[in-house]
């Protein structure tokens, strides 16, 4: 049972527009705090977008997502899951990046997550652009390669950008495969679409056995069928979930750097996460929310709603 200290502040006790916004109104527990040893799931902000190749802004994501997350209540209305009752959840704060140095930022992120893991805390991350996932995986997959369910309109499997630059938000999972952090046979990418430079990324996917489910196949087969296959691919072994908000159609999530039309709606955006129930999820992230392109705040609200669904399936995995 969870300790009362870790219960989110209810909107019945303090109005949602009041107070200092932490993720889902949870207590802020820094890594140096004694009570860190009691945390089961840590929500972590990574305000970093140095891997962005086009429209920037996800460095502002965690602050906006914290604000939007004050709307999240304690119970999942669809599944009945009440994650804060079974687990101690806390906002572990932000990883401070070095916005002028990609390698240093990645080292800082890996070091932070390594410390998180020493306390047996499972991380749920609010990015940040998609390069954020690579230094997280370097900490999480130190012992053994992970499987991954990846929602995105892009594979992020390209070899390099801009005359050999290896570290961008279009390359994190190519590096993760090369570094042995992911088992390619246990990786599934869902929602891929849009115009492309070439098929170098997808040729690579095919060559190593990554399953790419393009949006045409997703809509032809339907969500249930596709997610049943995704569950089979990752199986019962440790699995990471990486969720790029541009998986969702830009009519519902315009506040992102690389939108692609013809995607799932906001209802399906939640449903695909519910379909992960029971998997062995060791960590998850929500990336690429860009507040400067989100003047209504609607993309951030969808982002935190997805984060809550991720938290619910992570909570079920632990109990
Ligand atoms: Mn991505
Ligand atoms: Mn994307």
Please explain how this structure is put together.
This protein has 319 residues and is of the alpha/beta class. It has one domain: 3-Layer(aba) Sandwich (Arginase, Chain A), CATH 3.40.800. It has 10 helices and 8 strands. It has helices at residues 61-68, 83-86, 102-118, 133-140, 172-178, 200-208, 215-221, 223-234, 266-274, 298-318, and strands at residues 41-46, 89-94, 122-127, 146-151, 182-192, 211-214, 239-244, 281-287. An 8-stranded parallel beta sheet has the order 2-1-3-8-7-4-5-6, with helices on both faces. Helix 9 (266-274) runs parallel beside helix 10. The radius of gyration is 18 Å and the shape is globular. It binds manganese (II) ion (2 copies). One manganese (II) ion binds next to loops.
What key attributes describe this structure?
single chain; 319 residues; alpha/beta; Arginase, Chain A; 8-stranded parallel beta sheet; 10 helices; 32% helix; 16% strand; binds manganese (II) ion
Summarize this, please?
The protein has 319 residues and is an alpha/beta fold.
Summarize the topology.
Layout: E1 41-46, H1 61-68, H2 83-86, E2 89-94, H3 102-118, E3 122-127, H4 133-140, E4 146-151, H5 172-178, E5 182-192, H6 200-208, E6 211-214, H7 215-221, H8 223-234, E7 239-244, H9 266-274, E8 281-287, H10 298-318
Parallel strand pairs: 1-2, 1-3, 3-8, 4-5, 4-7, 5-6, 7-8
One manganese (II) ion (MN) binds near residues 130, 154, 156, 169 and 288.
């Amino acid at each position: 049972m969870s300790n009362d200290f870790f219960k989110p502040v209810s909107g019945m006790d303090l109005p949602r527009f009041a107070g200092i916004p932490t993720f889902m109104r949870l207590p802020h527990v820094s890594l140096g705090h004694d009570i860190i040893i009691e945390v089961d799931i840590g929500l972590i902000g990574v305000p970093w977008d140095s891997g962005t190749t086009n429209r920037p802004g996800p460095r502002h994501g965690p602050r906006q997502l914290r604000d939007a997350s004050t709307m999240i209540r304690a119970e999942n209305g669809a599944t009945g899951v009440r994650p804060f009752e079974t687990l101690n959840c806390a906002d572990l704060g932000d990883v401070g990046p070095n916005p002028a140095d990609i390698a240093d930022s990645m080292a800082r992120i890996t070091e932070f997550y390594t410390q998180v893991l020493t306390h047996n805390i499972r991380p749920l991350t609010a990015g940040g652009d998609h390069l954020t996932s690579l230094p997280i995986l370097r900490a999480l997959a130190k012992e053994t390669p992970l499987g991954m369910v990846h929602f995105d309109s892009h594979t992020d499997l390209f070899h390099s950008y801009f005359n050999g630059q290896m570290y961008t938000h279009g390359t994190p999972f190519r590096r993760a495969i090369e570094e042995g952090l992911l088992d390619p046979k246990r990786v599934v990418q869902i929602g891929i679409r849009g115009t492309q430079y070439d098929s170098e990324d997808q040729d690579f996917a095919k060559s190593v056995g990554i399953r790419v489910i393009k949006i045409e196949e997703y809509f032809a087969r339907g969500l249930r069928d596709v997610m049943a296959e995704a569950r089979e691919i990752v199986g019962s072994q440790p699995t990471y979930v990486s969720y790029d908000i541009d998986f969702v159609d830009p009519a519902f999530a315009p506040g992102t750097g690389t939108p692609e039309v013809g995607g799932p709606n906001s209802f399906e955006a939640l449903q695909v996460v519910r379909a992960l129930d029971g998997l062995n999820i060791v960590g998850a992230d929500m990336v690429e929310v860009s507040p400067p392109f989100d003047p209504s705040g609607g993309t951030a609200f969808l982002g935190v709603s997805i984060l809550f669904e991720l938290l619910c399936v992570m909570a079920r995995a632990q109990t």
